[in-house]
Amino acid sequence: MVDTPFYREDWVVADEVRVASDLVEATLDVLRSLRGCRVGLADGELLPVPLWWAWESQLEIAWEPVDRLLWPLRRVKDAYELAMLRRAARVAAVGLQAASEAAVVGATEAEVCAAGVAAALKAGADFVRYLRVHSGPWSAWGSRWPQATARRLQPGDLVVLDIIGAVNGYAFDVLRTVAVGTPTDDHARLLEAVQAAVEVAIASARPGVVVRHLCERARSVLVDAGFPDAARFVGHGIGLETVEPPYLREDQEETLLAGEVLCVEPAVWRLGWGGASLEEEVVVGNPPEVITRTA
Questions:
Q1: Rounded Cα–Cα distance for residues 73 and 244 (Å)
Q2: How many Å apart are CA 238 and CA 260, to the nearest integer?
Q3: How remote is the C-alpha of 127 from its chain's centroid?
Q4: Residue 69: which pLDDT band, with cuts at 50, 70 and 90?
Q5: HSE-up of 187 (CA within 13 Å, CB side)?
Q6: Strand 233-237 to 244-249 pairing
C-alpha cells in the first residue's frame, strides 16, 4: 500500500508539520504541555466550535486574545508582500477583463462568471472564492450567493463584477461596474459619481490621514452628486486575508500607515433600481500607489 501524501512540501513554510486525521486530538496533544500557562489566541472567532469545546473541557489554559498585538504587525506590508499583492492584483485584472468582455446582451450572469473565473485561474490564481456577477435591478444586491444566476443581460443593464481570490496566499478583491451597451442618463451619472469618489479616496490614502476623514471625503462626493444614500462603508485593508484592518468607516479614528494596502470601494446601492461601485487596491504612501487599474 502506498500512502497518499497530505500536503505539498514545496508549498509549506512552517518549520514543523504534523499530519493527523483527528484535528481535535492532535491539537490537544500539543497544548497539554502548556497546562497552567497563559496562551495567546489570535483570530479566535475562526475556531470551529467542537475544537473550542474540547480545549475548554480538557485543558487548564488561560486564553488571552492577542489580535491587538497581531494586527498592527500585519497591517504594514514589507517589500515581498507588496510584490505578492501587486501580482495578485494583476491576476484579478485578467479575470475582470474577461468577465467584462463577456458581459454582452443575451449572456447569462453565469456565463460572465465562468469566463472571468477561468481567465483568473489560467493567469495564476490559487483559487477564485467567487466572482459576483449581479445585473440590472439586482446590481444593488450585496449578497455573495448565488454569485451568478441564469438571468440574461439586457440592454442598459448595470453589471457588478466583484472578484475575490488569492495568488500564492495573498488576496485580491477588486470590483468593477460595467454597463451593457449604453446606460441610462441616471445610471451614467451614478457611474461618474462613483469614479470621482474613488479618485478622492485614492488621493486620501496617505500616511497620517485619519480613516474617518478618507471616508467622509469620498462619501461627500456621492452625496453632492445627488446620492445621499451612499454606503457608509468605504473599504478595508487586504493582505493574507481578503478583509483586514483597517476598516474604512466613518466611526474609525485611527490613522493610515505607510505600506498598508487598502481596498477603497465607495458605493451606491438602491434595491430595484441598481447600484454601482468601483474598487481599487491602493498602497498607502506619498503618493498613493494604485495596483489594480484595469481597462
A1: 12
A2: 8
A3: 13
A4: confident
A5: 23
A6: antiparallel
With H, G, I as helix, E, B as strand and everything else as coil, classify residue 279: strand
Pick the closest to residue 264 from 206, 224, 223, 225 (CA basis). 206
* 195 φ, ψ (degrees, to nearest 5): -60, -45
CB burial readout 19-32, b (16+ within 10 A) else e: eeeeeeeebeeebe
Helices (H), the chain: 23-31, 49-58, 67-75, 79-102, 109-123, 185-203, 211-224
Q: Which residue has the higher pLDDT, 17 or 163?
A: 163
Q: What is the CATH number of domain 76-290?
A: 3.90.230.10
Q: Which three cell numbers stand for residue 131?
A: 466572482
Domain ranges of the chain: 9-65, 76-290
DSSP structural state of residue 108 = B
294 close to 176: Cβ distance less than 8 angstroms: yes
Rounded to two decimals, what is the model's pTM?
0.90
In which band, very low, low, confident or very high, does the pLDDT at 3 lie, cut at 50, 70 and 90? low
DSSP code string of 8-29 = -GGG---S-----S-HHHHHHH
CB 163 within 8 A of CB 89: no
Reported as a single tens digit per residue, the pLDDT across 22-39 is 889 989 998 998 988 999
Residue of 66, 2, 54, 6 lying closest to 30 (CA atoms): 54
CA 251 vs. chain centroid, Å, equals 20
Asked if pLDDT for residue 129 goes beyond 90, the answer is yes
Distances (CA, A) of 234 to 279, 286, 293: 9, 20, 18
**For residues 35, 38, 43 and 48, what is the CA-based torsion angle, rounded to 10 degrees?**
30
